[in-house]
Amino acid sequence: MASIVLLTVVAIFLLIGVPIGICLAIGMLATLVVSPITNLQFISQAMYSGLDSMPLLAIPCFILAGSVMEIGGLSKRLINVANKLVGRFDGGLGTVAIVACLFFGAISGSAPATVAAIGSIMIPAMIERGYDKVYATGLIAVAGGLGVIVPPSIPMVIYGVATSTSIGSLFLAGFFPAIVVALSLGIVNYFISKKRGYKGTGEKFNLKGFLSACWEAKWALLMPVIILGGIYGGVFTPTEAAVISVAYGIVIGLFVYKELKFIDLFRIVDNNTSFVGGVMMTFAPAAALGSIFAMLQVPSAVSSALMTISTNKNIILLIINIFLVFVGMIVDTTSANIILSPLLLAVLKPMGVDPIHLGIIMTLNLCIGFVTPPVAVNLFVASGMTKISVERIAKVAIPFIVALFAALMLVTYIPDISLGLLKIMKY
Phi, psi at residue 179, to the nearest 5°? Predict the structure, then answer.
């Protein structure tokens, strides 16, 4: 009964537009009225301890680092490297956009930021080369999801904090899945471009030109090497890496590329404050909610319900994926990650699902959530850039969303795609 009251109250307040953190708090208060399983003091302490976490500091820092490098001239240099690498094939500029999103994601950790940074340059360039404007926008909107799969990834940090899972291991596990997603999108782009007649540059691969582009972008390319190398080399923690990434980005933007101004820093902080505040407002009650769920034995109830459907782990994983895709359509990805990841881990871990593997599955589902309406942040960012309706962009994006589903299934049922690199490096 108490569980039903909690979920019903949260759902009602969500439907009327109340911020999800407040919805969770009100839901817990309603639960205490119906069934006093604990007291307000416990909930308050649980909310405080939920925020008393050093890894949480990585979230605002990675967000700031991505914004700094976006304005500081990083995007166009990465795009130049990608163009030298894959621009010669059919659909070359589309493939360049995908690879550029992969590169930029290795710095920003954010899908919307990747769409904005790469889209502002690539969409006009693709239109100039004869690409349909709607197609170019849809491709960028979906490819921007790579920003949360390739490490460092903000959703991975959130999952790691929410489930007490190693963030460094999650980052390392994200490499191969990011490549699988990029290849899936690249294959779809190639065949669509072949059909529509979108040609590449036709130039043969020039090693000297490629190395020259890499040299020009060396400071941008060096950033993920420093950050990830430092984490895996044991030099610093993911939180310290996030702080270093901000400092590195500011120095490069101000004094090397000289495209970042001091006044831009104030605007960057102002633009990201509301997002960070929203994450914290969601994280605090979500931390308390985990304890309430445990008291109400929700994980065991969910597990029992799933077992009545099937005892096959593969079937359970398919059901979870379908559920997460549906959730991603109606709940913002950050909130879904904070609330659901501890619950799903409690259900799936006894079935033999590795916490790292589940983290990658969650991240890929969130990637799909960025482009599936009505809550589709990437589509809205792309729409705001090009003034094309979200509906038209979503229609063009359908083949790429199908490719994301295919990549999700591969990663779900071949755990070594996520865990293989961890095994190789014995991390």
Answer: -65, -40
Q: Which amino acid is at 415?
A: P
What is the crossing angle of helices 111-128 and 133-143, to 10°? 150
Q: How far is CA 46 from CA 13, 38, 287, 290, in A?
A: 22, 11, 6, 9
Q: How does pLDDT run across 186-241, given as a tens digit for each residue?
A: 999 999 998 888 887 777 778 888 889 889 888 888 888 888 788 877 788 888 88
Each residue of 135-189: pLDDT tens digit? 999 999 999 988 888 888 888 988 998 888 988 899 999 999 999 999 999 999 9
Please report which residue ranges of 233-330 form alpha helices under DSSP H: 238-251, 262-295, 298-309, 313-330
Closest C-alpha to 377, from 156, 154, 116: 116
Backbone angles phi, psi at 417, to 5 degrees: -60, -40
Residues 6+ apart with CB under 8 A from 288: 24, 28, 42, 43, 46, 47, 50
Scanning 144-261, the segments in alpha helix (DSSP H) are 154-163, 167-173, 175-196, 207-216, 218-232, 238-251
d(CA 165, CA 148): 17
